[in-house]
Amino acid sequence: MLTDPRLATRTRHMQSNAIREILKVVSKPGMISLAGGIPAPESFPTERMDEIFGTVMAKYGAQALQYDATEGFEPLRVALSDYLAQQSVQASAEEILIFSGSQSVLDTVAKMVISPGDIIVTEEPTYLGALSAFAPYEPRYRTVSTDEEGMIPEALEEVLKTEAVKLIYLTPTFQNPTGYTLSLARRRAIGQLLQTYNCLLLEDDPYSALRYRGHALPPVWSFAPEQVIYSSTLSKVFAPGLRIGFCVAPEWLRPWLVVAKQGVDLHTSTLNQALAVEYLTGGHLPEQLATIIELYRPRQEALLQALTQHFPQDFIWSRPEGGMFVWVIGPEGLDAEAVYWSSVEKGTAFVPGKYFFAQPETGLSTMRLNFTMVDESTLDHAVQVIAEAIQEATAETA
Ligand code: PMP
Description:
The chain has 12 helices and 15 strands. The longest helix is centred in the last third of the chain and has 27 residues. The two termini are 38 Å apart. The site of 4'-deoxy-4'-aminopyridoxal-5'-phosphate has 14 residues, from helix 4.
Protein backbone atom coordinates (compact mmCIF):
# COMPACT_ATOMS: atom_id res chain seq x y z
CA MET A 1 0.00 0.00 0.00
CA LEU A 2 1.41 3.43 -0.95
CA THR A 3 1.45 6.11 1.68
CA ASP A 4 1.04 9.83 1.23
CA PRO A 5 4.68 11.06 0.96
CA ARG A 6 3.87 13.83 3.42
CA LEU A 7 3.25 11.17 6.08
CA ALA A 8 5.63 8.75 7.78
CA THR A 9 5.73 5.27 6.26
CA ARG A 10 4.41 3.79 9.51
CA THR A 11 1.04 5.40 8.82
CA ARG A 12 0.38 2.69 6.24
CA HIS A 13 -0.38 0.39 9.18
CA MET A 14 -2.61 2.87 10.95
CA GLN A 15 -6.30 3.49 10.44
CA SER A 16 -9.05 5.18 12.35
CA ASN A 17 -10.81 2.91 14.81
CA ALA A 18 -13.77 1.32 12.99
CA ILE A 19 -15.90 1.46 16.12
CA ARG A 20 -15.48 5.23 16.35
CA GLU A 21 -17.08 5.40 12.87
CA ILE A 22 -19.89 3.07 13.94
CA LEU A 23 -20.45 5.13 17.09
CA LYS A 24 -21.09 8.29 15.08
CA VAL A 25 -24.69 7.13 14.46
CA VAL A 26 -25.10 6.56 18.18
CA SER A 27 -25.09 10.27 18.91
CA LYS A 28 -28.31 10.72 16.89
CA PRO A 29 -31.09 11.94 19.20
CA GLY A 30 -33.26 9.12 20.55
CA MET A 31 -30.82 6.33 19.65
CA ILE A 32 -30.53 3.61 22.31
CA SER A 33 -26.93 2.53 22.51
CA LEU A 34 -25.63 -0.87 23.50
CA ALA A 35 -22.61 0.02 21.37
CA GLY A 36 -20.25 2.03 23.56
CA GLY A 37 -17.83 0.67 26.08
CA ILE A 38 -18.10 3.54 28.48
CA PRO A 39 -19.20 3.90 32.10
CA ALA A 40 -22.63 5.33 32.93
CA PRO A 41 -22.32 9.02 33.85
CA GLU A 42 -24.37 8.30 36.99
CA SER A 43 -21.56 5.95 38.11
CA PHE A 44 -19.24 8.94 38.63
CA PRO A 45 -18.73 10.30 42.14
CA THR A 46 -19.91 13.76 41.06
CA GLU A 47 -21.27 14.65 44.47
CA ARG A 48 -18.02 13.78 46.21
CA MET A 49 -15.84 15.85 43.90
CA ASP A 50 -16.11 19.18 45.76
CA GLU A 51 -14.90 17.49 48.92
CA ILE A 52 -12.14 15.61 47.06
CA PHE A 53 -10.95 18.81 45.33
CA GLY A 54 -11.02 20.68 48.63
CA THR A 55 -8.92 18.07 50.39
CA VAL A 56 -6.44 17.93 47.50
CA MET A 57 -5.92 21.69 47.56
CA ALA A 58 -5.61 21.74 51.35
CA LYS A 59 -3.12 18.85 51.34
CA TYR A 60 -1.02 19.54 48.26
CA GLY A 61 -1.72 23.15 47.21
CA ALA A 62 0.69 24.33 44.52
CA GLN A 63 2.33 20.89 44.34
CA ALA A 64 -0.84 19.54 42.68
CA LEU A 65 -0.48 22.19 39.96
CA GLN A 66 3.25 21.76 39.40
CA TYR A 67 5.28 19.57 37.04
CA ASP A 68 6.04 16.22 38.63
CA ALA A 69 8.05 13.02 38.19
CA THR A 70 7.55 10.98 35.01
CA GLU A 71 7.19 7.80 37.07
CA GLY A 72 4.10 9.25 38.78
CA PHE A 73 2.97 11.33 41.75
CA GLU A 74 4.61 9.64 44.74
CA PRO A 75 1.51 9.62 47.01
CA LEU A 76 -0.47 7.95 44.21
CA ARG A 77 2.18 5.27 43.70
CA VAL A 78 2.00 4.56 47.44
CA ALA A 79 -1.82 4.47 47.42
CA LEU A 80 -1.85 2.18 44.38
CA SER A 81 0.60 -0.17 46.08
CA ASP A 82 -2.05 -0.72 48.80
CA TYR A 83 -4.89 -0.93 46.27
CA LEU A 84 -3.05 -3.48 44.12
CA ALA A 85 -2.18 -5.63 47.13
CA GLN A 86 -5.94 -6.26 47.46
CA GLN A 87 -5.90 -7.68 43.90
CA SER A 88 -3.01 -10.06 44.59
CA VAL A 89 -0.46 -7.75 42.95
CA GLN A 90 2.23 -7.20 45.58
CA ALA A 91 4.18 -4.25 44.21
CA SER A 92 6.07 -1.51 46.00
CA ALA A 93 5.43 2.15 45.07
CA GLU A 94 8.70 2.20 43.03
CA GLU A 95 7.49 -0.72 40.94
CA ILE A 96 4.32 1.13 39.89
CA LEU A 97 4.35 3.62 37.01
CA ILE A 98 1.48 6.00 36.29
CA PHE A 99 0.28 6.60 32.75
CA SER A 100 -2.35 8.76 31.06
CA GLY A 101 -4.96 6.00 30.89
CA SER A 102 -4.11 2.34 30.47
CA GLN A 103 -4.40 2.97 26.72
CA SER A 104 -1.11 4.80 27.05
CA VAL A 105 0.46 1.76 28.76
CA LEU A 106 -0.43 -0.30 25.67
CA ASP A 107 1.24 2.24 23.38
CA THR A 108 4.34 2.68 25.54
CA VAL A 109 4.98 -1.02 26.03
CA ALA A 110 4.67 -1.67 22.29
CA LYS A 111 6.92 1.31 21.53
CA MET A 112 9.67 -0.11 23.74
CA VAL A 113 9.51 -3.82 22.83
CA ILE A 114 8.14 -4.14 19.29
CA SER A 115 10.30 -3.73 16.19
CA PRO A 116 8.70 -3.96 12.74
CA GLY A 117 7.81 -7.58 12.01
CA ASP A 118 7.93 -8.76 15.64
CA ILE A 119 5.18 -11.16 16.62
CA ILE A 120 2.42 -10.22 19.06
CA VAL A 121 0.04 -12.98 20.17
CA THR A 122 -3.52 -11.89 20.88
CA GLU A 123 -6.82 -13.47 21.75
CA GLU A 124 -9.28 -13.86 18.90
CA PRO A 125 -11.34 -11.61 19.19
CA THR A 126 -9.37 -8.91 21.03
CA TYR A 127 -9.64 -5.27 22.19
CA LEU A 128 -9.58 -3.11 19.10
CA GLY A 129 -7.89 -0.25 20.96
CA ALA A 130 -4.90 -2.51 21.60
CA LEU A 131 -4.57 -3.21 17.88
CA SER A 132 -4.69 0.57 17.27
CA ALA A 133 -2.02 1.15 19.91
CA PHE A 134 0.29 -1.54 18.51
CA ALA A 135 -0.16 -0.73 14.80
CA PRO A 136 2.46 2.09 14.50
CA TYR A 137 5.16 -0.33 15.68
CA GLU A 138 4.39 -2.63 12.74
CA PRO A 139 3.98 -5.99 14.47
CA ARG A 140 2.79 -9.22 12.90
CA TYR A 141 -0.02 -10.98 14.74
CA ARG A 142 -0.65 -14.57 15.69
CA THR A 143 -4.05 -15.24 17.15
CA VAL A 144 -4.70 -18.04 19.58
CA SER A 145 -8.01 -19.85 20.01
CA THR A 146 -10.13 -18.66 22.88
CA ASP A 147 -13.26 -20.14 24.45
CA GLU A 148 -15.48 -19.17 27.42
CA GLU A 149 -12.53 -19.87 29.75
CA GLY A 150 -10.23 -17.54 27.83
CA MET A 151 -7.09 -18.30 25.84
CA ILE A 152 -6.37 -22.02 25.44
CA PRO A 153 -2.87 -22.69 26.86
CA GLU A 154 -2.22 -25.71 24.58
CA ALA A 155 -2.97 -23.54 21.53
CA LEU A 156 -0.68 -20.83 22.92
CA GLU A 157 2.11 -23.35 23.43
CA GLU A 158 1.84 -24.48 19.81
CA VAL A 159 2.65 -20.89 18.77
CA LEU A 160 5.41 -20.43 21.38
CA LYS A 161 7.07 -23.66 20.23
CA THR A 162 7.31 -22.62 16.61
CA GLU A 163 7.59 -18.83 16.59
CA ALA A 164 9.71 -16.17 18.30
CA VAL A 165 6.89 -14.38 20.11
CA LYS A 166 7.88 -10.92 21.38
CA LEU A 167 4.74 -10.10 23.34
CA ILE A 168 1.45 -11.70 24.33
CA TYR A 169 -1.50 -9.38 24.89
CA LEU A 170 -4.35 -10.63 27.08
CA THR A 171 -7.35 -9.21 28.94
CA PRO A 172 -7.86 -12.18 31.27
CA THR A 173 -10.85 -10.86 33.24
CA PHE A 174 -14.21 -9.85 31.69
CA GLN A 175 -12.55 -9.38 28.35
CA ASN A 176 -13.52 -6.69 25.87
CA PRO A 177 -15.39 -7.70 23.68
CA THR A 178 -16.40 -11.20 24.92
CA GLY A 179 -16.72 -10.82 28.69
CA TYR A 180 -14.84 -14.15 28.99
CA THR A 181 -12.61 -14.75 32.01
CA LEU A 182 -9.47 -16.87 31.93
CA SER A 183 -9.94 -19.74 34.39
CA LEU A 184 -7.63 -20.21 37.36
CA ALA A 185 -6.11 -23.37 35.87
CA ARG A 186 -5.37 -21.56 32.62
CA ARG A 187 -3.87 -18.57 34.47
CA ARG A 188 -1.49 -20.96 36.16
CA ALA A 189 -0.74 -22.81 32.91
CA ILE A 190 -0.08 -19.59 30.99
CA GLY A 191 2.14 -18.31 33.84
CA GLN A 192 4.13 -21.54 33.52
CA LEU A 193 4.42 -21.17 29.74
CA LEU A 194 5.68 -17.59 30.12
CA GLN A 195 8.48 -18.87 32.34
CA THR A 196 9.29 -21.89 30.19
CA TYR A 197 9.52 -19.84 26.99
CA ASN A 198 10.72 -16.66 28.74
CA CYS A 199 8.04 -14.68 26.97
CA LEU A 200 6.59 -11.28 27.94
CA LEU A 201 2.86 -10.86 28.65
CA LEU A 202 0.98 -7.57 28.73
CA GLU A 203 -1.92 -8.29 31.10
CA ASP A 204 -4.59 -5.65 30.53
CA ASP A 205 -6.95 -5.58 33.50
CA PRO A 206 -9.39 -2.66 33.35
CA TYR A 207 -12.54 -4.57 34.38
CA SER A 208 -11.79 -7.01 37.22
CA ALA A 209 -13.11 -4.65 39.93
CA LEU A 210 -16.54 -4.67 38.22
CA ARG A 211 -17.48 -8.10 39.59
CA TYR A 212 -21.20 -8.80 40.11
CA ARG A 213 -21.01 -12.49 41.06
CA GLY A 214 -18.46 -15.18 41.89
CA HIS A 215 -14.97 -14.90 43.35
CA ALA A 216 -12.01 -12.78 42.32
CA LEU A 217 -9.18 -14.61 40.53
CA PRO A 218 -5.48 -13.80 40.94
CA PRO A 219 -3.96 -12.07 37.91
CA VAL A 220 -1.59 -14.01 35.65
CA TRP A 221 1.06 -11.58 37.00
CA SER A 222 0.96 -13.43 40.34
CA PHE A 223 2.13 -16.64 38.62
CA ALA A 224 5.02 -15.07 36.66
CA PRO A 225 5.82 -11.51 37.83
CA GLU A 226 9.15 -11.44 35.97
CA GLN A 227 7.40 -12.10 32.66
CA VAL A 228 4.28 -9.96 33.06
CA ILE A 229 3.46 -6.27 32.73
CA TYR A 230 0.28 -5.84 34.76
CA SER A 231 -1.76 -2.87 33.54
CA SER A 232 -4.91 -1.37 35.00
CA THR A 233 -6.83 1.87 35.28
CA LEU A 234 -9.12 3.99 37.44
CA SER A 235 -11.33 4.64 34.38
CA LYS A 236 -14.01 2.12 35.34
CA VAL A 237 -13.93 2.61 39.12
CA PHE A 238 -13.48 6.41 39.33
CA ALA A 239 -13.72 8.46 36.13
CA PRO A 240 -12.23 7.85 32.66
CA GLY A 241 -11.95 11.59 31.98
CA LEU A 242 -9.17 11.85 34.55
CA ARG A 243 -7.02 9.47 32.45
CA ILE A 244 -5.33 7.62 35.29
CA GLY A 245 -3.80 4.31 34.21
CA PHE A 246 -0.88 2.45 35.75
CA CYS A 247 1.32 -0.59 35.37
CA VAL A 248 3.67 -2.86 37.26
CA ALA A 249 6.48 -3.89 34.95
CA PRO A 250 9.57 -6.12 35.31
CA GLU A 251 12.65 -4.25 36.51
CA TRP A 252 14.55 -4.41 33.20
CA LEU A 253 11.67 -2.74 31.34
CA ARG A 254 10.64 -0.06 33.84
CA PRO A 255 13.37 2.53 33.07
CA TRP A 256 12.61 2.16 29.36
CA LEU A 257 8.92 2.87 29.90
CA VAL A 258 9.94 5.99 31.81
CA VAL A 259 12.26 7.10 28.98
CA ALA A 260 9.40 6.68 26.48
CA LYS A 261 6.97 8.64 28.64
CA GLN A 262 9.49 11.45 29.16
CA GLY A 263 9.38 12.03 25.43
CA VAL A 264 5.59 11.88 25.15
CA ASP A 265 4.02 13.92 27.95
CA LEU A 266 6.67 14.31 30.70
CA HIS A 267 4.13 13.00 33.20
CA THR A 268 0.43 12.39 33.73
CA SER A 269 -1.61 15.35 35.09
CA THR A 270 -0.46 16.01 38.67
CA LEU A 271 -3.85 17.39 39.68
CA ASN A 272 -5.68 14.32 38.41
CA GLN A 273 -3.20 12.04 40.17
CA ALA A 274 -3.73 13.97 43.40
CA LEU A 275 -7.51 13.57 43.01
CA ALA A 276 -6.93 9.83 42.55
CA VAL A 277 -4.89 9.68 45.78
CA GLU A 278 -7.71 11.28 47.72
CA TYR A 279 -10.29 8.98 46.08
CA LEU A 280 -8.25 5.90 47.03
CA THR A 281 -7.15 6.93 50.52
CA GLY A 282 -10.13 9.06 51.65
CA GLY A 283 -12.49 6.07 51.86
CA HIS A 284 -14.36 7.01 48.66
CA LEU A 285 -13.49 4.02 46.48
CA PRO A 286 -15.21 1.23 48.46
CA GLU A 287 -18.45 3.20 48.77
CA GLN A 288 -18.46 4.36 45.16
CA LEU A 289 -17.53 0.92 43.82
CA ALA A 290 -20.48 -0.56 45.71
CA THR A 291 -22.73 2.06 44.05
CA ILE A 292 -21.29 1.28 40.60
CA ILE A 293 -21.81 -2.47 41.07
CA GLU A 294 -25.37 -1.95 42.31
CA LEU A 295 -26.01 0.09 39.16
CA TYR A 296 -24.52 -2.39 36.69
CA ARG A 297 -25.48 -5.76 38.18
CA PRO A 298 -29.25 -5.43 37.52
CA ARG A 299 -28.54 -4.00 34.08
CA GLN A 300 -26.49 -7.05 33.18
CA GLU A 301 -29.17 -9.37 34.58
CA ALA A 302 -31.82 -7.52 32.56
CA LEU A 303 -29.78 -7.89 29.38
CA LEU A 304 -29.21 -11.62 29.93
CA GLN A 305 -32.87 -12.17 30.71
CA ALA A 306 -34.00 -10.21 27.65
CA LEU A 307 -31.70 -12.28 25.44
CA THR A 308 -33.23 -15.51 26.78
CA GLN A 309 -36.70 -14.12 26.20
CA HIS A 310 -36.34 -12.50 22.79
CA PHE A 311 -33.39 -13.99 20.90
CA PRO A 312 -33.78 -16.98 18.55
CA GLN A 313 -32.88 -20.46 19.87
CA ASP A 314 -29.83 -20.85 17.65
CA PHE A 315 -27.98 -17.89 19.24
CA ILE A 316 -25.58 -18.29 22.17
CA TRP A 317 -24.06 -15.64 24.41
CA SER A 318 -21.56 -15.21 27.23
CA ARG A 319 -22.75 -14.88 30.85
CA PRO A 320 -19.85 -12.97 32.42
CA GLU A 321 -19.66 -12.53 36.18
CA GLY A 322 -18.73 -8.87 35.66
CA GLY A 323 -17.41 -6.23 33.28
CA MET A 324 -19.35 -4.23 30.72
CA PHE A 325 -20.12 -6.57 27.81
CA VAL A 326 -22.05 -9.62 26.69
CA TRP A 327 -20.87 -11.39 23.55
CA VAL A 328 -23.43 -12.91 21.23
CA ILE A 329 -22.67 -15.56 18.61
CA GLY A 330 -25.31 -16.03 15.94
CA PRO A 331 -25.66 -19.05 13.66
CA GLU A 332 -23.19 -19.41 10.81
CA GLY A 333 -24.26 -17.34 7.82
CA LEU A 334 -25.77 -14.54 9.92
CA ASP A 335 -24.57 -11.14 8.78
CA ALA A 336 -24.41 -9.18 12.06
CA GLU A 337 -23.58 -6.00 10.16
CA ALA A 338 -26.87 -6.25 8.22
CA VAL A 339 -28.60 -6.77 11.57
CA TYR A 340 -26.76 -3.69 12.85
CA TRP A 341 -28.01 -1.40 10.07
CA SER A 342 -31.56 -2.62 10.36
CA SER A 343 -31.45 -2.26 14.15
CA VAL A 344 -30.02 1.28 13.88
CA GLU A 345 -32.92 2.22 11.59
CA LYS A 346 -35.20 1.11 14.41
CA GLY A 347 -33.26 3.23 16.91
CA THR A 348 -30.94 0.72 18.65
CA ALA A 349 -27.19 0.40 18.14
CA PHE A 350 -24.64 -2.26 19.12
CA VAL A 351 -21.24 -3.21 17.70
CA PRO A 352 -20.97 -5.97 15.09
CA GLY A 353 -18.34 -8.32 16.51
CA LYS A 354 -16.28 -8.66 13.33
CA TYR A 355 -14.43 -5.44 14.18
CA PHE A 356 -12.66 -7.20 17.04
CA PHE A 357 -11.04 -9.83 14.83
CA ALA A 358 -7.60 -9.20 13.38
CA GLN A 359 -8.36 -11.48 10.39
CA PRO A 360 -10.86 -10.12 7.84
CA GLU A 361 -14.03 -12.16 7.18
CA THR A 362 -14.09 -13.69 10.66
CA GLY A 363 -16.62 -13.24 13.43
CA LEU A 364 -19.28 -12.13 10.94
CA SER A 365 -22.14 -13.56 13.00
CA THR A 366 -21.04 -12.04 16.33
CA MET A 367 -22.16 -8.96 18.28
CA ARG A 368 -20.90 -7.05 21.31
CA LEU A 369 -23.64 -5.74 23.58
CA ASN A 370 -22.85 -3.20 26.29
CA PHE A 371 -25.20 -2.92 29.26
CA THR A 372 -23.75 -0.10 31.38
CA MET A 373 -25.30 2.88 29.64
CA VAL A 374 -29.05 2.18 29.73
CA ASP A 375 -31.55 1.14 32.39
CA GLU A 376 -33.21 -2.26 32.69
CA SER A 377 -36.47 -1.60 30.84
CA THR A 378 -34.66 0.17 27.99
CA LEU A 379 -32.32 -2.83 27.71
CA ASP A 380 -35.31 -5.14 27.36
CA HIS A 381 -36.76 -2.93 24.62
CA ALA A 382 -33.37 -2.70 22.86
CA VAL A 383 -32.99 -6.48 22.80
CA GLN A 384 -36.49 -6.82 21.31
CA VAL A 385 -35.52 -4.37 18.58
CA ILE A 386 -32.32 -6.27 17.78
CA ALA A 387 -34.30 -9.54 17.76
CA GLU A 388 -36.69 -8.03 15.18
CA ALA A 389 -33.71 -6.88 13.11
CA ILE A 390 -32.32 -10.44 13.28
CA GLN A 391 -35.61 -11.85 12.06
CA GLU A 392 -35.60 -9.47 9.12
CA ALA A 393 -31.95 -10.18 8.25
CA THR A 394 -32.49 -13.95 8.38
CA ALA A 395 -35.75 -13.73 6.39
CA GLU A 396 -33.86 -11.85 3.65
CA THR A 397 -31.12 -14.49 3.39
CA ALA A 398 -33.50 -17.50 3.73
N1 PMP B 1 -8.01 -1.95 27.71
C1 PMP B 1 -9.26 -2.37 27.48
C2 PMP B 1 -9.51 -3.84 27.31
C3 PMP B 1 -10.32 -1.45 27.41
O1 PMP B 1 -11.56 -1.90 27.16
C4 PMP B 1 -10.04 -0.07 27.59
C5 PMP B 1 -11.10 1.00 27.51
N2 PMP B 1 -12.28 0.72 26.98
C6 PMP B 1 -8.71 0.31 27.81
C7 PMP B 1 -7.73 -0.65 27.88
C8 PMP B 1 -8.31 1.75 27.97
O2 PMP B 1 -8.82 2.35 29.11
P1 PMP B 1 -8.22 3.69 29.75
O3 PMP B 1 -7.23 4.26 28.80
O4 PMP B 1 -9.40 4.57 29.96
O5 PMP B 1 -7.57 3.27 31.03
